[in-house]
Design a protein that fits this description.
Elements (H helix, E strand, L loop, with lengths): L1 H9 L4 H20 L7 H7 L4 H4 L1 H11 L18 H30 L7 H9 L2 H25 L2 H7 L4 H14 L1 H18 L7 H19 L12
Helix pairs in contact: 1-12, 2-6, 2-12, 5-9, 5-12, 6-8, 7-8, 8-10, 9-10, 11-12
Length: 243
């Protein structure tokens, strides 16, 4: 995390990029998946956006890769990943992550309907009363959080090192994903700590109105790159393409 923060401090101008991209990307994913955001799905949607957060950090992985290689790492290279031979595989993993996000929000809505019914609340106050003032609301939150935790584990295994690897090396999506899951299994304590840190920073950055994510996302992006370089044996992978 310290190295990621050092990278962020050196490249503070990139805040402008992420401040624009992240809200637009998040809203696009939400509306594409749901066709709108009903009140009862707001929390599953907000919590589930962390499932697609690594996609937004792709540009920061590229900047970190270029900086490590001694290349120009100004923000103009943020989208250079499109020139990578792994770009097609990255798109495939991105689709998989968006599908995971969409399924989580759908499951969250189904859990709500199972406990609180299909009639939408008339106001935020009524919705909060249903959540915290009824036994069914508490049961729904317990089950929902347990299911959400399972989704978080899947997302952690799927993306812990796979996205940085696709930025760094000319590998296919299956290789990147399988390597990521093996890295999690080989380093369960480190992966658990990382997951908690990411969750805490994303929650903090989302208050208020997602403004703090302009700092959190690039910080986590750079830090994830340094994590990847330590966890994965890059020498066993194909050479880095020059771009």
């Amino acid at each position: 995390m310290k190295e990621g923060w050092a990278d962020f401090r050196e490249k503070r101008g990139d805040i402008v990029v992420i401040a624009i991209i992240y809200p637009l990307f998040s809203l696009s994913v939400a509306f594409a998946s749901l066709g709108g955001v009903p009140l009862v799905l707001f929390f599953p949607m907000a919590a589930g956006l962390s499932l697609v957060g690594p996609l937004v950090a792709v540009g920061f992985y590229e900047l970190a890769r270029r900086r490590e290689a001694g290349l120009d790492s100004s923000w103009q290279h943020f989208f250079d990943i499109r020139h990578s031979p792994s770009f097609g595989s990255l798109i495939g993993v991105a689709v998989l992550m968006i599908m995971l996000f969409g399924s989580w929000v759908w499951v969250g809505g189904a859990i709500h309907d199972a406990f609180l019914g299909t009639v939408p609340p008339k106001s935020v106050g009524q919705f909060l009363h249903q959540l915290f003032g009824t036994a069914a609301g508490w049961q729904m939150m317990i089950i929902g959080n347990l299911v959400g935790f399972a989704y978080a584990l899947v997302a952690l295994g799927l993306t812990w090192t796979s996205i940085p690897m696709l930025v760094d090396r000319p590998v296919d999506g299956a290789t990147a994903i399988s390597t990521s899951f093996r890295a999690v299994m080989a380093n369960p304590g480190m992966a658990a700590r990382w997951g908690l840190i990411v969750a805490a920073l994303l929650v903090a950055g989302s208050i208020p109105a997602f403004i703090g994510l302009a700092v959190v996302i690039p910080w986590l992006g750079y830090a994830t790159w340094h994590l990847y370089t330590r966890v994965v044996d890059r020498g066993a992978l194909p050479p880095i393409p020059i771009r």
